Amino acid sequence: MSQNLIRNKGIADIIVATIIAVKPATIYESFVAKMVHSWTGLHISDASLAPGFNHSIACMVAAVGVGFIVASRSGSAVHPAIFAMTLSWSVLGFLTCATPRAWGLGSATLLMTSFNHLLFSLAMYWKDPRVLSPVVVGQTRKVS
């Protein structure tokens, strides 16, 4: 159920973090990133410009992945928090990509990750619509 989805997302995050740490251009200059760039005009990130920043992103993505794996073993009470965190990442990424191009904040890669996080959030909601209830009405949820 949702535990498997959350665990698999955590594993995927760790794989992505490894790619970003070792060869970030694999993601930043991928076919998909180039397609997104051609459709939207958002810039393609140049991995060679900021190796320290790339490594910081890799550390963050790996830490989030580990958190997801731990959350997958922590029961359903944590699912609303994972849902809220992932949906927030998506919304904030989309808003960043909607800023004026002159600001240079949005990128093809950010739009890709925003879309991925939106799909994950929708999949979580589809698997368990209760992920939304504590977020909406401020309820607490007992561990099942």
How would you describe what is shown here?
This protein is mostly helical and 144 residues long. It has 7 helices and no strands. The protein has helices spanning 2-22, 25-28, 31-40, 51-72, 79-97, 108-127, 133-137.
Number of helices: 7
Helix content estimate: over 70%
Q: Characterize the main sheet.
A: none
Q: Give the overall pLDDT as a whole number.
A: 91
Number of distinct beta strands: 0
Characterize the overall form. Answer: globular
Counting helices, strands and paired strands, the structural category is mainly alpha
Task: Encode the helix/strand succession as letters.
Answer: HHHHHHH
Classify the oligomer.
single chain
Q: Measured on Cα atoms, how large is the radius of gyration?
A: 16 Å
* Strand percentage: under 5%
- Uncertain stretches: none
Q: How far is the first residue's CA from the last residue's CA?
A: 13 Å
